[in-house]
Structure formats: C-alpha cells, structure tokens
Amino acid sequence: EEGKSCLVLSMKLADDVGSDLIAANDPDADRLAIAERDLNTKQWKVFNGNEIGSLLGWWSLQYYKDKCPGADLSNCYMLASTVSSKMLKTMSRVEGFNFEETLTGFKWMGNRSVELMNEGKEVLFAFEEAIGFMFSPAVLDKDGVSASAHLATMASYLKLKEGISLSEKLDQLYKIYGYHYSITSYYLCYEPEKIVRIFERIRNWEGTSAQYPPFILEGKYKISGIRDLTTGIDTSQPDGKSTLPTSKSSQMITFTLDNDTIVTLRTSGTEPKIKYYAEYCAKPEER
Q1: Do 256 and 225 meet the contact criterion of CB atoms below 8 Å apart?
Q2: What is the CA 46 to chain-centroid distance, rounded?
Q3: How far apart (Å, rounded) are the C-alpha atoms in residues 169 and 112?
Q4: How far apart, in whole angstroms, are the C-alpha atoms of residue 268 and residue 244?
Q5: Would you place residue 206 in the very low, low, confident or very high pLDDT band (cuts 50, 70, 90)?
Q6: d(Cα 234, Cα 240) in Å, to the nearest integer?
C-alpha cells in the first residue's frame, strides 16, 4: 500500500532471474500487491489496488462466462467498497451484471455476499482499493492467496492467448469502458478535535448552517452531489437520505463533481489520518 519500497528486493531478484511479474502478499497473506516489468523500458510498474481490482474483476467475469456459457449475468454480482474505483460499476452497465457498493471493510462485503447467495445470486468478485480482493465466495473475506493464484493464471492466459501484458490489458479495458484514474493518500492529524472542526467547517461552508461547498477551484468545477455518512445526507437520493449505514462516530463525506470526478474524505478508524480518495471516470469516447 505504501509504494515501491517494500518490493525493492523482489525487483532485484526478478531482474536477476529474468522474471517479468511479481506477486507479493503481506505477512498474514490477506492482501495482494503486483508489479510488472515493461519489456520496452525495463521499468517496473507497481499496480494500485484499483487497477488490480479492475483486472481481476474482468477476469472473474471471463472465468464465469467460460464456466457457465449462456448463463444469465443479471443474476451475478460484484461488490466494492465505496472508496474504491467505480470501474466495476461502469463494466456492469455494459456487461449486464449487478454492482453494489458497501462501506469500507470486508465485513460489509462478506455479509452482503452471504445475503445475496442466500437469495440465490452468484457473487463473482469483491474488492477494496487497499489491495484486498475476494475472488469468488470460497473465502468470504479478502484473501491474498487465492487472488495471487488467479492473478498468475490471468497473466499466463494473456501472455499465451493474446500476447499482451497486464498493463496492455488494462489499457484495453479503459478503451472499452472509459479511462478511470484515481489518486488516494492521506494527511496525518494527531488532534481529534481539529479533525472534527475540519469536517464541521465543510458542512457549514462560509458559516452557513448545513450548507456544503457548491464548487471547487473558485468555481471551475461544480459539486453536483454530496453524501455525508456521518449525518446521513445523500442529495442523489429522492428522499435526500443515504442508503448506506451511517455513523456519527466517524467522518466521511463524498463529493460528486459535474466533470465525472468523485472525491471522498474520511477519517481512519485505527490511525490519526484524514484519508482522501479521488477518481476521474471518463466516458469511453473521451480519449
């Protein structure tokens, strides 16, 4: 999650033995990181969680189609946490399967998967941007072991059958479904009271009660929708109320801009951080 530093030794070994792909698990093996060497530049690309989720989501759909030819995709579901990429949501509109968002954490995706399976639905895949992946419901949690196995299978398939790399496949997906570009990071803040004041200022912009910012960058981009999971507000819903669970003990606000960008600000439940997640979701014709 923290960049290339943890993969330096893996890259050195891969260079020494001539490997073009690295798959890495964390100590308890519930997360998966991958890196691929560009055959032209010889430079390593470390994929972020949203990119891996897009690739494994596509692969889970192909896997299901091959296993169950002619199956009704309207009975199939993929899930992602609400701060993760909307790529699977975009794919679902084209391919005909269902997509659902949950709160962050695999307890939400795992529990929702159980509910769907009890209704006779097929759960194909779930992921969160923090390199956590659930490929099929064999393990109802993020599982880096099965994810690495499926990743290796996909990479081998693409190399042997299509003669392309993971990066090239990702580019193909962007051309079909639209380019999705995300930036995620955080600010450290060790004063809980200050964090609350920051979010309350956003909710009372310009000193006006219950008035969120109408735009960013001095009016360049209009904010067309706001979902506040601390207060339960969602302006995109007919009744103005969020369909996701809310909690007054944590801070989380999502802004939808009129240029197809989505930005979420939230606090960490375990660390002194204000996290931000921004994604631009282009349409296929936007190059």
Answers
A1: yes
A2: 16
A3: 30
A4: 18
A5: confident
A6: 5
pTM above 0.85, yes or no: yes
Pairwise CA distance, residues 124 & 76, whole Å: 7
Q: Which two tokens stand for residue 84?
A: 């993760």
Residue 210 predicted with pLDDT over 60? no
- Average pLDDT over the chain reads 93
Q: Among all chains, which residue has been given the structure tokens 């690495």?
A: 148
Residues contacting 10, CB < 8 A, separation 6+: 22, 24, 35
| pLDDT beyond 80 at 287 | no
Q: What string of H, E and C letters represents the secondary structure of the chain?
A: CCCCHHHHHHHHHHHHHCCCEEEEECCCCCCEEEEEECCCCCCEEECCHHHHHHHHHHHHHHHHHHHCCCCCHHHEEEEEECCCCCHHHHHHHHHCCEEEEECCCHHHHHHHHHHHHHCCCEEEEEEECCCEEEECCCCCCCCHHHHHHHHHHHHHHHHHHHCCCHHHHHHHHHHHHCCEEEEEEEEECCCHHHHHHHHHHHHEHHHCCCECCCEEHHHCEEEEEEEECCCCEECCCCCCECCCCCCCCCCEEEEEECCCEEEEEEECCCCCEEEEEEEEECCCCCC
Residue 77: what pLDDT? Answer: 98
By the 8 A CB rule, do 52 and 133 touch?
Answer: yes
What Rg, from alpha-carbon coordinates, does the chain have?
20
Q: How many Cβ atoms are within 10 Å of 75's Cβ, its own excluded?
A: 13
Amino acid letter, residue 162: E
